[in-house]
Amino acid sequence: MRGQGVGHVMGRRRARARGAGGFAVLLCASLALPCAAWIARDVWVAESAADIWWLWAGEPVRPQESPVWATTLLDPLLGLGYLCTAAAVLRRSPSANCALTAMAAATLLFRLPLLRTLGAERLSGQEPGVREGAMVTAGAALLLSVLLLITASAGRDRTGRPPGRLRLGPAAPAALLLGGAGLALAGWQAYWIREMGWPLYRDSVIGNTGVFRALLQPPPNWYLLSLVLLALVSAVGVAQRAVSMRPLGMLTAALLLAHGTARLTAEQRAGLLGRFSALPASRQLDVTTWTFVALAGLVALFALTRPADSARPRGSEAGQMPPGFTPPAPPSKLPPNW
Q: In the chain, which stretches have pLDDT less than 50?
């Protein structure tokens, strides 16, 4: 009877886990679909497909009569992250719940300021209904990300088994590079606070000032501060070799790699890399920072793809007895029909 009860409970847990997994896949698809739709919209209205890349790199070509852009480099990265997370859930990967949590946290972080900027910003040449559609997208993303957090919590493993640890070899350089990139970007934020003054810098973070290139673009300094936060939190978690921090670390590394590469591409188009030695010291430091950020993201992403040490079962699950333990002697008289 006891065995049947345990089996019944385990069956209910598996059924609940399957239900949570299916709902998580649906949420990821619902988050990825608007990203793909807005990217397709920008490709449709662009004069050339190359304009989309320069838009994402930070140098859009926007004639006065063209419609406003909607996407930034963040949108394809988030969309790809949702799809990878859905694939991890379908494969029943041990890191699926951690990936769900990481994507939900990133969505909340990057989409939250849009509710303010879309309501206050003035963009010329906007199409009817485009701003309203962007606001619906941002609001729905926030709601779905909260549901994603709840689903990840419901599907978390509560058996108490050790989750394993990241290997020291890949984890150490990944943590150093993520932390170094975060500190480098934080240093630039401190520089801009001194140059702009706190009131103007604060307004640039919350979106009160500045011209936005796209509707779904968070305020630039909000975005950079978010990268700093993600990089430092990921570095601390990876330094502790926590497997649960690997999805967040991979997401952060991908953001650092993509953003650094885009900035370097824009610098190359402006001709700054070809005359690096003639640039002012501040511009040289800026180019050097983004080169380091891109390389740090690339190396950290590669390091975090390495498999973790498998968890070693405890007690009887391992098939081994604790040190000093002696099994009891067999009974002198065996029961009938033994």
A: 1-3, 5-11, 124-125, 159-160, 162, 311-322, 325
Residues sharing a CB contact under 8 Å with residue 298, sequence separation 6 or more, in sequence order: 253, 257
Q: Please give the DSSP secondary-structure letter assigned to residue 129.
A: T
Q: Give backbone dihedrals phi and psi of 36, rounded to 5 degrees, phi first.
A: -65, -40
Q: What is the pLDDT of residue 147?
A: 96
Which amino acid is residue 31, in one-letter code? L
First to last CA, the chain: 21
State both tokens at 248: 């967040």
- Distance CA(297)–CA(28), nearest Å, equals 24
Tokens of 245: 């921090």
User: Alpha carbon of 297 to those of 76, 94, 169, 172: distances in Å?
Assistant: 17, 24, 17, 14
Residue 334 confidence (pLDDT): 56
Which pair of structure tokens corresponds to residue 40?
Answer: 């397709």
Q: List Cβ neighbours of 190 (8 Å cut-off, separation of 6 or more).
A: none
CA 230, distance to chain mean position in Å, is 8
CA angle 78, 84, 88 (to 5 degrees): 140
Q: Which two structure tokens, joined as six digits, stand for 91? A: 């494969």
The answer to whether residues 31 and 141 touch, using CB atoms and an 8 Å cutoff, is: yes
Residue-level length of the chain: 338
